[in-house]
Fold this protein.
Amino acid sequence: MKKTVLLLLFITSISNSKAQAIWNNNSFVHRNNQQILDGQNNIIKLNGVNLGGWLMWEGWLWGGGFTAEKDIYNNIQTIVGSTSASNFRDSVYHNFITKADIQKISQECFNVVRIPFNHNILEDDFNPYVYKQSGWNLLDSVLQWCEDYNVYAVLDLHSAPGGQSTSFTADPDFIINLWNGSINKTRTKRLWKAIASRYQNRGIIAAYDLLNEPNVTPDADMLAMYHDIIDSVRSVDNNHMLSIEGNNYAQNFSMFTSLPDPNMNFQFHIYSWFYNNADSIVAHINYNTNISNSLNVPIWCGEWGENDYAHLDTTLTILNNPLYKVSGSSFWTWKKMKQTFQYPYYNGIDTTHEWNTSMAWVSNTSLPAPSALVMQTGINGFINNGKEQNCTLNTTLSNILNACLPAGVKDEAEQNSISIYPNPFTSQTTISFSSEQKNTTIKITDILGQEIKTIPHVRDRQVIIDKAEMKAGIYFVQTSDEQKHICNKKIIIQ
């Protein structure tokens, strides 16, 4: 056991040195044609996680339904009163994500966090253009933690004033949203100018994500809004890369015939429950690759996830395939309640009966209302259980994401010299090599690094692997040849 622990520590230490951000406040992450470069002009992939449910609330992440932030807050206030509701908001802001979370994310070998935030952390709707120090303090803190652990930050305006879509994910105002109110458009432009002015020399910020998942007809309204925001940002900050999401919830980029800014990437989102097989996932990602090719611009996947293990593994494999030129991806999301629909958590929060009862009513007020005592008890449990030290890391999902590649991994070309299909599998799978082998060794280990099977002296282009006595779970396949070329792949047995 001691040998296994030392092996894992060694692998993690090697991998961390590869995954961490390299940054300073004089040079910045930027675009170079279809690639993203760090401040030292090294090609990088921005691979990380979203910090959903912290500075932007979505009911389902907390064990409720598809409920917008303002509805969550107002319904909680109805039961416990304005003072307790305000205290709850502050408690979420100061406990749901802390320095310990960023440290853990760094230890998971990610090099970026995407930080969704609601405009109201900085600006109250009833007091426009007055920016709150409490909100600056929140952003300042997380940026400092990112600097402490060498993790890039992407600042994501997840809810613009009024809301950039009618989805609960934008916390919209249904009477006057972003698109039908000139005041909200002006507020959004000025808000981004204030953000850019404050952080213009903060090298840890990889990009400004100007509008999360906009949705508006006609396309021209979105293009005009982007141009206005970009003008505001560039009036004070020419350093930072901009991340531009397409219309129809970051799905459609057809309206872009040229780049709205020279230092930018296009950001798409993919949730594979929209796509029921690998071919459809490939088709969607390849659509974005074609945009990258035609406009000579990087593409980045700012959100993906929320599916079963097999679909998640398939999606990530495709995202990581260099054929599609994706400059990294950010998993949704780092932390959520363990009991949220059927999809696995990454960092799980234990639930309580009182919190479940409260969130059920918050999401559906036609149910019997909880008492103030029940809701306050639920709130206290949620805040405590949501602290990083009380959360549970899902090692199965961690190994699927596999940001900490085993030591000895070579370049992407070598990683794609073998393929494994089917994967996941139930009885057997086939390892296929791109060329005839001379004297290759195949070694299979479990997630603890313990050797399960070794096949020496492989000379064929294909090798069949039987499940045999291996239990369902995740394993790693390592192939090595006489020239010490090493490839590592992950397999899943169902």
About this structure: The chain has two domains: 2-401, 412-493.
